[in-house]
Design goal:
The protein is α+β, with helices and mostly antiparallel strands. It has helices spanning about 15-20, 40-55, 100-110, 135-140, and strands at about 1-10, 30, 40, 120-125, 130-135, 145-150, 160, 180.
Length: about 190
Amino acid sequence: MQRIVLGRVKPTLSLPQALDKIRAGTRAVVVGDGHGSRVVTAGDIFEAMNEALDAGKDPKSVEIGEVKPTLPRVAVEAPPVTTTDRFGPPGSRPSLTFPEEDRFRSLLMAKDGGKEPRYLVEEIGPEGAVIVTSSEAFAGHLAKSLTICKCAGEPVHRFEPDQVRVPGVCNRPHGRPVTCSQAGIV
């Protein structure tokens, strides 16, 4: 099993605020605070921001809860949480025990045939959540530092590098030049 710690946000946060909650060394956030929590990538946020801009809306007026994530969430019941937690005192945070991890891994693999990255959100607190997945590639994708590509001109569209269809050119109709840099670097 692979585990990745992501920032967690409430569904009412604006798109730019949610983008700011992406933890260093990752490229997604967990939206929600319970059973319906889901992973929303920076690419999902950028797409929603670009759509808002093109519709003449301020991305600050769009809530992250309105974003439809592109990543599939596991559709199996989470394994039961035991009262003893190998990561701290009982009740400090839910955790899967080793036999439950084996059960979960087999459920994930049976559900998706190992082809699609499925995940489970393991809650750890109001500011973060652990994503549990059987896919090393998916875990590696989430655990990469965020790179933001911006186009020159108004409106300024944003993309992740793998979203840019033609290298160095904005996907939107104005086709302006695009430059990419790591998040946090001006």
